Amino acid sequence: MCMLVMLFLMAELGSSEAQKQTSRQGQQKLVILDVDPGIDDAIAMMMVLSQPAVRVLAVTCVRGNAREVLLDCKNALRVLNAAGRTDIPVYVGASLQLMGNDVYDYTHWNGRDSMGDAADKYPPDYRLINQAEHAVLTLIRMSKAYPNQITLIALGPLTNVALARRMDPDISSRFKEIIIMGGNIRGEGNIGISAEFNFWMDPEAAQVVLREYKCPMKVVPWEVCQEHGLEWDFFANWTAMPTRRARFIKAISLNLSKWLRAQGEPTYLSCDPLATAIVIDPGIVQNVDTVYATVEVEGEYTRAQMVVDWWGFRRKTPNVDIIRSLNMSRYKSLLMTAM
Predict the structure, then answer these.
(1) Where would one find the signal peptide in this protein (predicted)?
(2) Domains and CATH numbers, the chain
């Protein structure tokens, strides 16, 4: 509403179209999406792309859900096309982890194409993938162009973000904030017994980011995602909306929703949208813990587990805000708007 009033007043004063455009951009949140699409990445991207107050500067891709980073890029293009936003550049990032773990067969979750085996219905224009600049260099370049203005939303393994720190140490202070979907706080794993998928894919990268980045960081851990699933009735109504975006999300999530129901899951679990929700609507966060956290990289059973110093035993300065709960009504409202 404030934006509409401002634009009306500017028009009354005879401001030029260029001036109005500058004003709109000045109020937008600047965002880079570092992703590995992924069904939940697709939903998260739709949420951000639906918000006029958010300006997505770039989509940088990292190997994660897909076995090859180029497939992640193609899937990102599929999402952008479904959202009508192919104007946003997509960059190819890291194709291997820093050290990492063996690739796990995750096809039961995302399908062989990481899009619920529905990707062939949405062929992308591969020419739109920007291969002239590596995604890590994009992060460095854009953080210099917009110092302390960009929110980096990291929804996949943190390989690109860690490599950017290795190539340009000063980048650790140039982002406005980093929002991370990853890690765990009670030792519960969704890939093995004690690790969350994104951190498990590249534990060393996760450790570098948590230890070395100096900008504010917020982490949405796996256990919190479990506690904020979508009731099946809501999910059915949401994906049945008569829009192009809803039809796309329904198609790519169909097999996963069937699998989750067969497993007896009481809700539809989707992690990445929770991370984008706190960027769009910071007031959605109900409980948060500001603590020191790092990542175990040596343990025989606990490799890639996020270790949180809840009681301050190590006397380390807190480095992350761990999101513990969100307002579900406001979250669902954002999901509806995304369609």
Answers:
(1) 1-18
(2) 28-338 (3.90.245.10)
